[in-house]
Amino acid sequence: MGLAGVFPHLFGHDVPVEFRAYDGSRAGRTGADVGIEIRSPLALSQLASSPGELGLARAYVTGHLEVHGDLYTALTCFPAVTLQGISNGTRLRLLATLAGHRLWWPVGPPGQEHRPRGWRHSQRRDSKSISHHYDVSNRFYEWVLGPSMTYTCAVFDEPTSSLDQAQFVKHDLVARKLGLTEGMRLLDVGAGWGGMVMHAAEQYGVRALGVTLSGQQARWAQKAIAERGLADLAEVRHLDYRNVTETDFDAVSSIGLAEHIGRANLPGYFRSLADKLRPGGRMLNHCITRPDGSYGARPGKFISRYVFPDGELEPAAEVASAMNDNGFEIRHEENLREHYARTLAGWSANLERHWHEAVEEVGPERARVWRLYMAACRLGFERNAVQLHQTLGVRLDGTQAHMPLRPDW
């Protein structure tokens, strides 16, 4: 069996993919739109040392395995990557093939892999984990995210909406759910590049404070705030949300931060946000969730080591329960799963348009990490492996919620 013949045994013989290897062997469907090329012995060494998704991801990130054709389309062709369920006979044939090509030497993880140290979700470790993903290059993120510089799920009110239009709609939906009006004070935790803060200030006349653990994000946001003439209303600080000293905010938005908090810390997280609000103030939590409790909270090895170190995803019911038990009455909830798939498709298209510049800016390995993770996450939202939920809560004023009888957003 040639090296290319290893892959049909792993993925199945009916996948619409052609496999090629540097030894000249071919397997799979000849002339398929998607091709997988094993370019180096190290590709199979990675797979041999780390069977499953991590080994394949390492081989792709380092360029020892290449995908010809659209990566998202390629991923849709494959079932879950696993060595479980392979018969002993097939396993022995695979081992013989690999051993015959001397592919069993040790291989280390690529340089882009991050394995944080220290107490999980301590402020120091959280800061390093956030820096790994977000302190990459603001120019790189400008190419991927587009003019909105918003790195969270957009809301498409029309199928033909552009990504930037959909990000405006998302920010405005959050603002309207929070009931923002001129003169209010907003705290935005996990503020990123300041999109929500600037929207609240510019569109609603709100005094908005955003905080982020990324120094590059904070500097970019402050510059953008000054350029848009919003410095009297908006501010983004390089600060952990746990160290915000101000209180009595009229509203709190948490857009894409709860995924970094950790299951054990959710009760304290929501209690701390409730303590920042005045009675009658609202909080909107926007985060990625699992579809149900049968999934583990921690993501797969590729996402956890390359993309979001220490990230944890809980079911929407668990997030809502943590809110409900720690200072908030739940008033509204919705799933925007399909919107995140569209958002990721837009980001992926942006990356492809700027591929050569992106590689020059952040290096080929990091660019390939982003290409792979965004395509895989898009598929995850489409297949309901992950969801995106917005949950609106209110800190009661005695027994009064001060909410409209029906949603007015």
UniProtKB/TrEMBL annotation:
Protein EC: 2.1.1.79
Keyword terms of this UniProt record: Lipid metabolism, Methyltransferase, S-adenosyl-L-methionine, Transferase
Enzyme class of the recorded protein, top EC level: transferase
Molecular function terms, GO-annotated: cyclopropane-fatty-acyl-phospholipid synthase activity
GO process terms (BP): lipid biosynthetic process; methylation
UniProt family annotation: Belongs to the CFA/CMAS family.
Record-given protein name: Cyclopropane-fatty-acyl-phospholipid synthase
Source organism per UniProt: Halosaccharopolyspora lacisalsi
